[in-house]
């Protein structure tokens, strides 16, 4: 019997892991010049909004969609939640769990990047920004702070006046994160609540460095979710 045609909206470790477990078509946005490609069939680039995605699902005879995008890729997630019912295709959101503060953590939870930029100057002056290059603009007006920013690709203006950029793609080791924080005399870490491997949070805890934690955007109402790749594999299997 032929496999169901399943579309995985990817760009994450979980998306790649799922593509390694079941035959799927993986979709990447095409943001990075050298993306980590999942196994199997891959398509790259936007669909052209909700209408474009509906058209794609119909033309490609897709029978199920797993949205395994990053927890902060809210536009893509919203588009999938609108397009799938129109095309009559079941949708599962695969999201790794967010982080939970542990003893020793000093976290300032904020609802978004603008709120993070508001609280940072009151928490520290030497800022390690790990929210991704598209988020740097939110901090561009903070002239009183020095920033170390880490992203896969170089950021584009507007950026903070006092900025050093380090390029890199995780996962990072605890030792390397500790060394980076110490070498740059970081006194506040800014991160999205991405979940997953978290050596930077372990290093910040060990060094007593406070963290500004940007909360996840809400998920669309009524869409089933899975927290693990195993659960997503089961969901696909039960579709028959
Ligand atoms: P976004 O703001 O939610 O989406 C913006 C537009 O990019 C979407 O409307 C869609 O264009 C296109 N797009 C996004 N994800 C896509 C995918 N997997 N396949 C095809 N088109 C996609 O997305 P983003 O935050 O820029 O993230 C882009 C990609 O990077 C995602 O795949 C995400 O998983 C990955 N990523 C994001 C973050 C983050 O912090 N946001 C971190 C790590 C990885 P159309 O409207 O034209 O369809």
Instruction: For the largest sheet, list the strands in their spatial order.
Output: 3-2-1-4-5-12
Largest sheet, in brief, is: 6 strands, parallel
DSSP helical segment count: 7
- The CATH architecture of the largest domain comes to 3-Layer(aba) Sandwich
Instruction: Report the CATH topology name of the largest domain.
Output: Rossmann fold
Helix content: 25-40%
Average per-residue pLDDT, rounded, comes to 97
SSE topology:
Elements (H helix, E strand, L loop, with lengths): L5 E4 L3 H9 L3 E4 L12 E4 L4 H11 L4 E4 L6 H14 L3 E4 L12 E4 L2 H11 L2 E4 L16 E6 L11 E5 L6 H10 L4 E5 L6 H9 L3 E4 L10 E2 L2 H10 L2
Parallel strand pairs: 1-2, 1-4, 2-3, 4-5, 5-12, 6-11, 7-8, 7-10, 8-9, 10-11
This protein binds NADP nicotinamide-adenine-dinucleotide phosphate.
NADP nicotinamide-adenine-dinucleotide phosphate (NAP) binds next to strand 2, helix 2 and helix 3.
Main attributes?
240 residues, alpha/beta, Rossmann fold, 2 domains, 6-stranded parallel beta sheet, 7 helices, 12 strands, elongated, binds NADP nicotinamide-adenine-dinucleotide phosphate
């Amino acid at each position: 019997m032929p496999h169901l045609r399943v579309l995985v909206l990817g760009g994450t470790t979980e998306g790649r892991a799922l593509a390694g477990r079941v035959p799927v078509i993986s979709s990447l946005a095409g943001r990075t010049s050298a993306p980590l490609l999942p196994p199997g069939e891959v398509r790259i680039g936007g669909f052209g909004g909700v209408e474009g995605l509906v058209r794609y699902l119909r033309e490609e005879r897709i029978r199920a969609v797993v949205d395994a995008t990053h927890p902060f890729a809210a536009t893509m997630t919203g588009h999938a939640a609108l397009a799938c019912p129109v095309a009559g295709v079941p949708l599962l959101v695969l999201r790794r769990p967010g982080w939970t503060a542990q003893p020793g953590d000093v976290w300032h939870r904020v609802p978004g990047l603008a709120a993070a930029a508001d609280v940072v100057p009151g928490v520290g002056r030497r800022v390690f920004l790990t929210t991704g290059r598209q988020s740097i603009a939110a901090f561009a007006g903070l002239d009183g702070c020095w920033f170390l920013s880490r992203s896969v690709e170089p950021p584009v203006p507007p950026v903070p006046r006092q900025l050093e950029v380090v390029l890199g793609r995780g996962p990072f080791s605890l030792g390397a994160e500790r060394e980076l924080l110490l070498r740059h005399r970081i006194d506040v870490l800014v991160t999205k609540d991405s979940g997953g491997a978290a050596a930077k949070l372990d290093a910040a805890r060990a060094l007593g460095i406070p963290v500004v934690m940007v909360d996840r955007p809400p998920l669309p109402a009524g869409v089933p979710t899975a927290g693990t790749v195993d659960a997503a594999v089961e969901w696909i299997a039960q579709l028959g």
